[in-house]
UniProtKB/TrEMBL annotation:
It comes from Flavobacterium cellulosilyticum. It is found in: Membrane. The chain crosses the membrane at residues 12-31, 66-84, 91-107, 113-131, 138-157, 163-183. Gene3D superfamilies: Rhomboid-like. One of its GO terms (cellular component) is membrane. GO terms for molecular function: serine-type endopeptidase activity. The keyword Membrane applies. GO terms for biological process: proteolysis. It holds the Pfam family Rhomboid. InterPro entries: Peptidase_S54_rhomboid_dom, Rhomboid-like_sf. This is Rhomboid family intramembrane serine protease. It is a multi-pass membrane protein. Residues 53-183 form the Peptidase S54 rhomboid domain.
Length: 252
């Protein structure tokens, strides 16, 4: 496998930083000018509530809510951009839209806000996609995600905590899984290198190539050369007998 698929770029750091900075900027506007952004969240099964499909990930209820979402976003967005650079923007964009629509369909009659649904999209996509590729680096990334964020799975169930949107979490988990199936990645296979592919390969020194003439016809190697090859596989072992002088002296 050639790891050229994984290339570091400035966007690996810039994308998560900009995304999280924008969340804090929106929250600052909300506090500074006393804007009520909550009504722009997802309000399930209402026409006006559809706007929340786009706006809800950027709206947070308080500083603790925003902080708890910021750290996972920084880590997961960086991992997504580095290991799945070609799919990253689509996963973010369609992840927000699809998880928002599912939340709009199954959610309780309340405003659903916060970027936690996107976090569940990222966790789900990175985990399932890594397992599907069966490539050791991506599988290791999947296992790391499970170890660090595996506890999030409890918050996709109702009545675990009343104030959180378990519907948004569940929608994010489902969305990430669906996107992991829809978006294909390169086949991460180890490239086999043969001796004849080497730039310094000399066919005249290769034992196999020596059995063919210039026209490609198979020829037999002379018996003398065959005997020399057989002799090369064996080496003469010589033994030297050393008298045990101590034993002889004792006998005297």
């Amino acid at each position: 496998m050639n790891d050229n698929h994984f290339k570091y770029s400035n966007s690996v750091i810039a994308l998560p930083l900009f995304f999280v900075w924008f969340l804090w900027f929106v929250y600052w506007l909300q506090i500074k000018f006393d804007f009520d952004f909550y009504e722009h969240g997802i309000e399930p099964r209402t026409i006006s509530g559809l706007q929340g499909v786009i706006f809800s990930p950027f709206i947070h209820s308080d500083l603790e809510h925003l902080y708890n979402n910021s750290i996972p976003l920084l880590i997961l967005l960086a991992a997504l951009r580095y290991f799945y650079s070609k799919q990253s923007m689509d996963v973010i964009g369609y992840g927000i839209l699809l998880s928002g629509i599912i939340t709009w369909v199954i959610g309780r009659e309340s405003y659903h806000i916060g970027a936690s649904s996107l976090i569940y999209v990222l966790v789900s996509f990175i985990f399932f996609k890594g397992i599907q590729t069966k490539y050791y680096r991506l599988v290791a990334l999947s296992l790391t995600v499970v170890v660090v964020y595996g506890g999030l799975v409890w918050y996709i169930f109702p009545k675990v905590e009343e104030q959180i949107s378990w519907e948004g979490h569940l929608a994010g988990l489902i969305t990430g899984f669906v996107l992991s199936i829809l978006y294909k990645t390169p086949e991460y296979k180890k490239i086999i290198k043969y001796d004849w592919e080497s730039p310094d390969f000399n066919p005249n020194e290769d034992k196999f190539m020596q059995r063919f003439d210039e026209e490609g016809n198979f020829v037999n190697i002379p018996d003398i050369e065959i005997e020399e090859e057989i002799q090369n596989y064996y080496s003469t072992i010589s033994y030297t007998i050393i008298e045990n002088k101590e034993k002889d002296s004792k006998q005297e």
